[in-house]
Amino acid sequence: MAKETLGIIGGSGLETVLAEHIEDAKKEEVVTPFGKPSSEFLIGNINDRKIVFLNRHGKGHRFDPSSIPYRANFFALKLLGVKSCIASGAVGSLREEIHPRDLVLVDQIIDKTFKRENSFFTAKAAVHCELAQPYCPRLRELLLVASEKLEVKTHTKATYVCMEGPQFSTRAESLMHRNLGGDLIGMTAMPEARLAREAQMCFALVAMPSDYDCWREVSNDEGNQNLIGEIIGNLNSCSANFIKLIKEVSKLDDQVVERKCKCNKSLEQAIWSDPKEISPDAIEILEVLKGSSKR
Ligand SMILES: [Zn+2]
After folding, report:
1. d(CA 91, CA 20)
2. Which of 118, 194, 202, 224 has its CA 20 to 30 A from that of 137?
3. Which helix (DSSP H) or strand (DSSP E) does residue 13 occupy?
4. Nearest-CA neighbor of 182 among 204, 225, 215?
5. How far is the CA of 202 from the centre of ligand 1 (A)?
């Protein structure tokens, strides 16, 4: 049986490095009812598994977190046949024990974003998906198994606070995020997890801590002089480890092909609108998200 296609979403730094590991790579452009995705997709194979990669911030890192076309990105992944997707994302650590360069399998999110379209169905239909566990437990388990092959500390759970940005937090906000129960701070986890759930997609996030945010005061001799250089170094190290992780996940067979995941039924009881009141355009979107129709 063919291995299931795996979607990967990552930052700009990742694409160049990932391209070196993908066989038979090609680029594909996709257009959706929600406009163009952030970038062309990089499609190829790793360990005989088809990989569909999307550069979240687009070519040359052109999209800031508030402007990323999240809906087009996830709709396009669905059009390309992606049922399972693993995202990576840079974060700041809010906990002493989560060190820069570690990897983190995020399990919860506190959504503080306020100016992003966070549903495929806005003004089209009332659709209420369950989101108690925003990430797929099956994919998280696979990532955990794969991470055991790596020589990098991997945290198995963490709460990600998603802020609007683009500026980073004030110190008071950073301390508040810790008090809220946040372990990580970032700007892209939402609405990605919401849209993945509306797309009936298995979705997981591997967070890559680049620094300690600003709650942790730096001593004078550490200073801020080398901070940017240090962050870039940490992210490069995380990206290299993330790619190792994906290579290990790609080797796994049956578990990834397993279809009996509850994520794939997330729309089953979520549509509250009377189907007769939903427009033909919205029905078409729904059919793609359910996986019963392709382009
Ligand atoms: Zn799932």
Report:
1. 25
2. 118
3. helix 12-19
4. 215
5. 4
**Residue 213 CB neighbour total at 10 angstroms:** 25
105 Cα to the center of ligand 1, angstroms: 14
What is the dihedral angle through the alpha carbons of 14, 16, 20, 21, rounded to the nearest 10 degrees?
20
- Ligand 1 center–CA 254 separation, angstroms: 14
pLDDT digits (tens, 9 = 90+) for 40-92: 999 999 998 999 999 999 999 999 999 999 999 999 999 999 999 999 999 99
Catalytic member of 64, 107, 211, 274: 211
CATH class of segment(s) 6-290: alpha beta
* Cis upstream peptide for 191 (omega within 30°): yes
Q: Quick check: pTM over 0.90?
A: yes
CA of 224 to the centre of ligand 1 (A): 41
Query: Where does residue 264 rank: exposed (0-12), middle (13-18), buried (19+ CB within 10 A)?
Result: middle
Can 107 be counted among the known catalytic residues? no
